[in-house]
Amino acid sequence: MATFELATPASLMKDISQPDLALIDTRPAGDYWSGHIAGARHLDPSLFATPGTDAASLARLHAVLAWSLSALGITQDARVVVAGMRNEVNAARVAWALAYAGVRHIALLDGGVEAWEGERVTAAPAVTATAFTLDPQPAYLATAEEVLAAAGDGGARILDARTREEYAGERSNAGRTGRVPGARFWDTSRELDADGRYAAPGQLASAVKDLVAADERAIIYCGGGGRAARTFIALQLAGHRGAAVYPASWNEWGTSERYPVDTAGA
Asked: Where is the signal peptide (predicted)?
């Protein structure tokens, strides 16, 4: 299992020269090449988006994870710091994917690259590729079949990290509107404070305690996995170790008649 924490610009400045630290920039390629923190390796978060959670889709995700982390020279024991555009969801998607792949130490630069006041460079660092050994952590990923089972027997709490309008069935990014039966609405704005930083752990724990118990498994979904990943990170920071992301989310659930949809008013 992975440990999750927040890095500050000061802590990153202190540790950036350590040989076991790997800094990953998840911003769009154009932003990365216009100027990034020295030593940062670029990674496109869309690589880890998956339209399904069937065996073939997960096999593709595993192959992409192993290839990309090998190419970036990442190892399971590296201390990885993920820096995105502020605290947007794509940085969280990468952090979640790293944890699922088996990376053990993950931090997010709170506030993203915009919070960095040091020098920026345009040259990419020289990286020695490694043979990353994928060690999938099933506790961090929920498939559609697992969500279906949880919706039926209540074996896990299901959290909907979409907007209130999506949750209520007023709009959708997929073919059907509605929500997973039994899902509880989570307001993702509560994950950040007024300055756009992650909310304090105690504040996060207080906000979520009425939705899911600290020792209860929580399956989080959204439209395509990004917002769910940031909620996953927020729960981890709050000390909740039972969270899992349904990465295909409504892109899969909302397009298949196999999966039931609750369209009652919310």
From this structure: none
